[in-house]
Amino acid sequence: MLSRVFGFGRRSFDSLTEQEILALAISSEEDDGRIYRAYADGLREAFPQSAKVFDEMAAEEDEHRAALIDLHRKRFGERIPLIRREHVRGYYERKPDWLVRPLGLDAVRGQAEIMEAQAERFYIEAAKRTEDASTRKLLGFLAAAEKGHGALAHKLAAELTPGTVRDAEAETERRQFILTWVQPGLAGLMDGSVSTLAPIFAAAFATQDTWQTFLVGLSASVGAGISMGFTEAAHDDGKISGRGSPLKRGLASGIMTAIGGLGHALPYLIADFWTATMIAGAVVFVELWAIAWIQHRFMETPWMRATLQVVLGGALVFAAGVLIGNA
């Protein structure tokens, strides 16, 4: 760990020989090609046209690698030294595709632009450190090629993903986000906010003990969160429904359920009963309108319908809890 942070056991870039610079360039091009193919494979099912862009970029990296190997063979022979990014102090690093998943279109395209800019800077600096004319020429060519990769990506995107395709892919990405995160999270928030209203406010008005009320709210919120999380994760693996990872959906549902209940339970940490109750009531008001807004914003539910479903329903449950607590 310390060696990664402080660079112990690494070579400085300035200490590399021309052969080692070529070897580093070869391994870097190989890694970049592998990353682009991983991006393409990760996007292929949902975004087939954008996947073709990264297939083309991977093919470009293969051509660069082949040119570098040919040059190394002419100058230094067949044996290529084993030197990689992690062996050079201060050299740029690459994130493997599994660290940047889920592979959103904008995130992947942005990562590709960063990769090409870093590679361009490397070739510029490498060209400064070589005295061989053929090597200097190739490195300069590769620097220009990497700089042009940004234009290549835009050109390929324009050719392979015209406006209608990009719009369709963006809509697919948005829909997947809603199915995996928003929908289960919203269901959890609604359940946590509404279902805990009655027991929390019933306990509050029955006991007028803020600490006991908080314990009731805490247990109801955490229990509901665990229950909703496991239910969401277990009832659908997402393979047929296309709703995405059950783990992600379970986390979204469970966490938002707990948050929905804790929102109006936490005010009862305040010792004064009426102060805590007024704050809890204000939190409930905000929660219910937030749910209505999320329904309108992401689920395209009309405002009037969302208001009737959430705010009116929540108000009725709230009133039931108060009446039961005062019984």
Tell me what the structure shows.
The protein is mainly alpha-helical. The chain has two domains: 2-161, Ferritin (Up-down Bundle), CATH 1.20.1260.10; 175-325, no CATH class. It has helices at 2-6, 18-44, 48-76, 105-128, 133-160, 163-195, 197-207, 210-235, 246-262, 273-298, 303-325, and strands at residues 11-12, 88-89. It has a two-stranded parallel ribbon. Helix 2 packs antiparallel against helix 3 (48-76) and helix 3 packs antiparallel against helix 5. The protein is elongated. The chain starts with a helix and ends with a helix.
Give the arrangement of secondary structure elements.
Layout (H helix, E strand, L loop, with lengths): L1 H5 L4 E2 L5 H27 L3 H29 L11 E2 L15 H24 L4 H28 L2 H33 L1 H11 L2 H26 L10 H17 L10 H26 L4 H23 L2
Parallel strand pairs: 1-2
The gist of it:
This protein is mainly alpha-helical. It has helices spanning 2-6, 18-44, 48-76, 105-128, 133-160, 163-195, 197-207, 210-235, 246-262, 273-298, 303-325; strands at 11-12, 88-89.
Annotated CATH homologous superfamily of the largest domain: Ferritin, core subunit, four-helix bundle
Fraction of residues in H or I helices: over 70%
Number of strands: 2
Mean pLDDT metric: 81
Q: Would you give the CATH topology of the largest domain?
A: Ferritin
What is the 3D shape? elongated
Biggest sheet character:
2 strands, parallel
Query: What class, by secondary structure content?
Result: mainly alpha
Quickly name the level 1 CATH class of the largest domain: Mainly Alpha
Q: How large, in whole angstroms, is the Cα Rg?
A: 29 Å
Low-pLDDT ranges = 1-7
Give, in order, the helices and strands: HEHHEHHHHHHHH
Classify the beta-strand content into a percent band. under 5%
Spatial gap, N to C terminus: 63 Å
Number of domains: 2
Q: What is the oligomeric state here?
A: single chain
CATH architecture of the largest domain: Up-down Bundle
- Count of alpha/pi helices: 11
Strand order of the largest sheet: 1-2
